[in-house]
Amino acid sequence: MELNNKQRKILEAIFTDPIPANINWQDIESLFTALGATITQGQGSRVRILLNEVRAVFHEPHPQKETDKGAVKSVREFLTKAGIEPL
């Protein structure tokens, strides 16, 4: 798993308390890809993620680009279940 500086910062931000609400969804998807996840588009704004045999479905935020705190918390829980923690 090779993360660039931006992806490392996104990973750290996801695990920051209090939970931030200003992370761009595209940055989170880039992090998933760098971690080796398979990303498929579902119906509407749904995005299916498979990482380390753990599955999740997220909704892309729209019309804004930033995720809300609830979505970031869900991403954090998903990453933890998949065995990913900040470096």
Overview of this protein structure:
It contains 3 helices and 3 strands. It has 87 residues and is α+β, with helices and mostly antiparallel strands. The protein has one domain: Metal Transport, Frataxin, Chain A. The chain has a 3-stranded antiparallel β-sheet with strand order 1-2-3, with helices on one face. A hairpin with a 2-residue loop joins strand 2 and strand 3. The termini are close together.
Set out the fold topology:
Blueprint: H1 5-14, H2 25-34, E1 38-41, E2 46-51, E3 54-59, H3 69-81
The amount of helix comes to 25-40%
What is the CA-CA span between the terminal residues?
Answer: 11 Å
**Mean pLDDT across all residues, rounded?**
93
Determine the structural class based on helices, strands and strand pairing.
alpha+beta
- Basic shape: globular
Say what the CATH topology is. Answer: Metal Transport, Frataxin, Chain A
CATH class: Alpha Beta
Radius of gyration: 12 Å
Strand content: 15-25%
SSE string, helices as H and strands as E: HHEEEH
- Give the strand tally: 3
Please tag this protein with its features.
87 residues, alpha+beta, Metal Transport, Frataxin, Chain A, three-stranded antiparallel β-sheet, 3 strands
Could you provide a short overview of the structure?
With 87 residues, the chain is an alpha+beta fold. The chain is 38% helix and 18% strand. A three-stranded antiparallel β-sheet has the order 1-2-3, with helices on one face.
